[in-house]
Structure formats: C-alpha cells, structure tokens
C-alpha cells in the first residue's frame, strides 16, 4: 500500500468510507425512507432515534444529540482520538495511515500500551507447554483451538514477566498502567500480577490484546484473576470472544451467552461461533448494548448451579431493558456448556438451544422450585410469586397465556390468579409514576428558516443563487441566522466550516429529517416570502406601539412619518 500524508489520507477516507457500512458494523439499522434508523449506541433508549444518511454521509441521534461524519462516529464508538479513528478506517479501506511529521506523542500512551499487551501475549504464549495443553485436552479442546485463542501461561515466579520487559527496555510504569505488574507496598519495586496461571488473552473488537484473564493452575484463590481497568481496557465494556463471534452473530441473527472462557472455547470448537462470555464478571448494561448492536436475540446458557441460574436471571433483566429477546437454555445433568458438549456433542447442544425457554417461563419454573407444591400454602406462595413476575409483562396476550398455564400447574382458579396479578401490576405502576408531555409544534417561520438551511447545504448551485436572494437578517432564530450567514459566505465547503457544535448539531437534525421537496427554486422563493411577511408583521407590531406613544406625546411631525412608513409596509405585506 502506498503511503500518503495525513492531510491527504483524511480527505481520501472521507471520500471513500461509506458511513452506512461503517455504522452497520456497530448498530442494527432499518431503512426508513431515504435514511436508516437504529437504537443509539451512545445512550439508552427504547425508541430508535439514531439516524444515518448514506447520501449525506451524516449520522445524528435526535435523542442525545451525538452526531457527525464517519470519522466522528468511529472516534466516539471506539473511544479513540482522530488519528486512531483514521487508522481504523484505513484498515477497512486498505489505506495506510502515515504518522510521519506528527508529534511523537500523537502515537501516544494508548498505542504504547497496545504494543506492550501484544508483547505480553506473545510472552505468555511462549510459556505454553504440554502440561497446559493436556489440561485443555482433558476438557475436550484440541491444541488447534487452544492456539487459535492464543492461550498462554504465566510461570510460577514473582518477576518472570517483569524481567523480560526490563531487558527489552520497557518502562515499569507502563507495565503498571497496563496492569501487568503490581508495586510492592511502600517500596519502588514490583512483582508480576499473573503467576502460575493459564492466561486467556482478552481482545477488543479489532483483535488487539487489551487485557488478560488468568485461571489458577492448581488449588489457590482467586480461581480467576482479570486485568484491572486501564486506558485501553474496561472489563464491563468488553465481551470475551466478541472479536471472533461478531460476524457470526450478525449472520445467525442471535448470540449465545455463556459464563466461562472454557465454555466459550468449547462452543467455538463445536461450531457455535456466535458465542460470547462476560469476562467472569456480572453481566453489564454496556455489554448488553454491545450485543444489541449486532442482534435482537440472545440465548443464555449459564452454569446449571444456583449461582448460574441467578446470574442468568440478572443478565436476562439487563438484556430485556436493552430490548433484546432472551431465551434460556438449561442443562439439568451437566454443570456447564463445556461439560454438556463433551458428554453429548454438538447435535444435542443445538437441540438444547433450539428448545430453550423464554425468560418468563424460566423465571416462573425457578420460582416453583422454591416452594413445596404438594402443600396448599406452598402453592399459594408460588402463585403470589408468579403473579409478581407476570405483573410486569407488558404483552397482554403473553401474560394471559402464562396465567392459564400457571393456574393449571398450581391447581388454582384462573380469576383469582388474574386478580392477584392485576393488584401487583397496579401497585407497581403507582410506584413507577407516569411521564408525559406534549411537544410544541414548530412555527411556520422556523420551518422556513430550516428549509433554507437545508437547501443551502444540499445543493452547491442553489447555494450560489441563494447568496443573491437570501438575507440572513431576515432570520428570527439567532442560531439559524449564524448558520445561514456562514453557509452563504465565500469559500464555504461544508458542515465542518461551522464553528460551534450547536450549529453542526442543528444542521444534522435538519438534513436528516425526511424531505420530499420537488421544486426547490420555488421552495426558496416561498420561504423567503414567508420570512419577509413575518419580518414586516413584526415591524408593523413595533410601529403600532410607537404610533400609540407619539399620539400620547402629541408629536404630529413624528407621527406623520410613522404613519407613512406603516402604510408603505402594509402595502408591501399585501403584495407578498
């Protein structure tokens, strides 16, 4: 690939990067007219307000206001600076980003950390021996699978990794920032964080090593030890295996969520490449958003013990909040997916996934297990608990069907259970309160101003003609007045010429609204007339106030001048 300088590459990427293709890699989008809509990746929402225009090369969220062009999107979604965003897009387009001529600090601390973590990954891989490979083979994993996940080993010792990096000239402070070493209390010395542990590298969505998960090789605590948060790694904002599973999730239109790293590797080994895991931590809202960008369906296959069942319920609640449809697979006779696959094979596991139950059915069944259903009191308590679960179900048809099956299972009158559910639903709605409000429609004047801004941005030829026809002083809204003044100035090239973020945000909102204007020159004429009429109307209102004052002051000469001006403006108003 030929190298070009940073200025040229920026223009090249702006011209070649398709914003729809880039954004679709992170957000599920659906076509709406000329634009595409999806749930915003930058804030929580239940109704899609995130809009992308392939034609205009813009994105904007009408909920939180985030927006911009393709480079802005990558900077925000990947949490990187401008140069790093260019590199990400450059990789997609086959363009090399040349950093020569930049301040060395521009390569920055993050890149040093990425380089450091990659070197650490190779160091751990180099320690992998037959003993560790044998451990995985006993679990049902071949060496090929172990190698594909770049599994390594941290030797038993206090400073193996530290000494390796010091000999290579690395700064211990960078090692500490990356979470690879820990300072000794009260001393300027360090020791390795990972010792005598199987090392599972954690990759970001671009496949870069950002952290490690270390499993104890022997009987000592903690069983799992993860890298701490760093400038390149936040545990609750990553999913183990997502870099491998991303494309397959989109292809199969659902994701499998398992608890453990070995569970994930076994799933991939048996062809279930759409599997991810939450890094040995409680499933987070951010992780739910990561999955929501790729799919609307998740099957949870957590461990079959009590802790796994509880974790599955919590994960389901978080996914439901993100508007993801959840099903839960249960393995009655196996501890976890890894054991199930080893004992039963991929066909049985596929059948298990296929027969996974809705989260609602799973929660009700778990509730039943807590009570002695052979006794009246146990059935009554189970009914009350089931009613509390069904009270929050919004779909009336679904709720009614589950009420029927629950009443039948417990041998309880349907109407009694329905009444209990309604009672709980009423109290919960009282607790939640209500929100509402009516949005005030835009005025005719504001619509005319927005229309002129849109037309000026959309068509360079029209913009040139508008320079002769449109006077920014006709605009009432100061924001749109500033925008149109900049847009109709000499050497204007696009939205990036606007100085304020508020102005850019306003323009994005205007450009991404549906527009079916056919006769644009006529629309310009009509909008200008609307603004002129409103301007004259405002001037006439001021003149009326002034006339009243002069009549009271008995100033006939001044009064005559105002009356003549009032008549002239009234005549112009009638002619428009």
From TrEMBL:
Residues 253-334 form the Toprim domain. GO terms for molecular function: DNA binding; DNA-directed RNA polymerase activity; zinc ion binding. It comes from candidate division WOR-1 bacterium RIFOXYC2_FULL_46_14. The keyword Isomerase does not apply. Contains an N-terminal zinc-binding domain, a central core domain that contains the primase activity, and a C-terminal DnaB-binding domain. Pfam families: DnaB_bind, DNAG_N, Toprim_2, Zn_ribbon_DnaG. A zinc finger (CHC2-type) spans 40-64. This is DNA primase. Keywords: DNA replication, DNA-binding, DNA-directed RNA polymerase, Magnesium, Metal-binding, Nucleotidyltransferase, Primosome, Transcription, Transferase, Zinc, Zinc-finger. The gene is dnaG. RNA polymerase that catalyzes the synthesis of short RNA molecules used as primers for DNA polymerase during DNA replication. One of its GO terms (cellular component) is DNA-directed RNA polymerase complex. Its EC number is 2.7.7.101. It catalyses: ssDNA + n NTP = ssDNA/pppN(pN)n-1 hybrid + (n-1) diphosphate. Monomer. Interacts with DnaB. It comes from the Bacteria. Binds 1 zinc ion per monomer. The keyword Transferase applies. CDD domains: TOPRIM_DnaG_primases (cd03364). GO terms for biological process: DNA replication, synthesis of primer.
């Amino acid at each position: 690939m030929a190298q070009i300088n940073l200025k040229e590459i920026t223009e090249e990427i702006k011209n070649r990067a398709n914003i729809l293709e880039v954004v679709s890699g992170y957000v599920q989008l659906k076509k709406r007219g000329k634009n595409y809509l999806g749930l915003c990746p930058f804030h929580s929402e239940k109704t899609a307000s995130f809009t992308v225009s392939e034609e205009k090369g813009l994105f904007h969220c009408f909920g939180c206001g985030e927006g911009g062009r393709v480079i802005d999107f990558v900077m925000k979604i990947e949490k990187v600076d401008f140069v790093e965003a260019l590199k990400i897009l450059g990789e997609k387009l086959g363009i090399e980003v040349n950093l020569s001529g930049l301040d060395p600090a521009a390569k920055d601390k993050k890149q040093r950390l990425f380089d450091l973590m990659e070197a650490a990954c190779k160091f751990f891989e180099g320690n992998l021996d037959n003993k560790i490979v044998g451990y995985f083979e006993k679990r049902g994993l071949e060496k090929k699978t172990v190698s594909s996940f770049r599994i390594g080993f941290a030797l038993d010792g206090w400073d193996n990794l530290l000494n390796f990096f010091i000999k290579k000239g690395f700064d211990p402070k960078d090692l500490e920032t990356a979470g690879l070493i820990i300072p000794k209390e009260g001393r300027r010395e360090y020791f390795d964080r990972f010792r005598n542990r199987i090392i599972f590298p954690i990759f970001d969505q671009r496949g870069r090593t950002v952290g490690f998960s270390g499993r104890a090789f022997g009987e000592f605590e903690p069983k799992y030890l993860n890298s701490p948060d760093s400038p390149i790694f936040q545990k609750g904002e990553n999913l183990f295996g997502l870099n491998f599973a991303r494309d397959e999730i989109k292809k199969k239109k659902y994701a499998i969520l398992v608890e453990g790293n070995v569970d994930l590797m076994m799933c991939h080994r048996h062809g279930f490449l759409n599997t991810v895991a939450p890094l040995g931590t409680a499933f987070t809202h951010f992780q739910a958003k990561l999955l929501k960008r790729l799919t609307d369906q998740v099957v949870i296959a957590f461990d079959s013990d009590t802790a796994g069942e509880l974790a599955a319920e919590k994960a389901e609640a978080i996914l439901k909040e993100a508007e993801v449809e959840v099903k839960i697979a249960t393995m009655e006779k196996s501890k976890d997916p890894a054991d199930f696959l080893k004992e039963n094979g991929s066909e049985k596991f596929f059948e298990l996934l296929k027969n996974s139950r809705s989260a609602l059915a799973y929660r009700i069944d778990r509730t039943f297990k807590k009570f002695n259903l052979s006794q009246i009191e146990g059935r009554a308590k189970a009914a009350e608990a089931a009613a509390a679960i069904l009270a929050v179900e919004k779909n009336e048809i679904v709720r009614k069907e589950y009420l029927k099956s629950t009443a039948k299972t417990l041998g309880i009158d349907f109407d009694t259970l329905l009444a209990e559910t309604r009672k709980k639903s009423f109290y919960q709605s009282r607790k939640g309160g209500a929100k509402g409000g009516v949005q005030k429609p835009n005025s005719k004047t504001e619509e005319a101003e927005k229309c002129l801004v849109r037309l000026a941005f959309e068509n360079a030829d029209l913009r040139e003609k508008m320079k002769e026809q449109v006077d920014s002083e006709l605009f009432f809204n100061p924001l749109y007045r500033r925008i149109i003044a900049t847009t109709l100035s000499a050497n204007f090239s696009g939205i990036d010429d606007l100085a304020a973020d508020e102005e850019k945000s306003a323009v994005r909102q205007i450009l991404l609204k549906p527009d079916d204007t056919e006769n644009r020159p006529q629309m310009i004429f009509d909008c200008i007339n609307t603004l002129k009429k409103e301007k004259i109307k405002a001037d006439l209102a001021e003149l009326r106030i002034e006339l009243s004052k002069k009549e009271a002051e008995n100033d006939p000469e001044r009064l005559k001048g105002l009356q003549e001006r009032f008549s002239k403006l009234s005549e112009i108003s009638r002619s428009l």
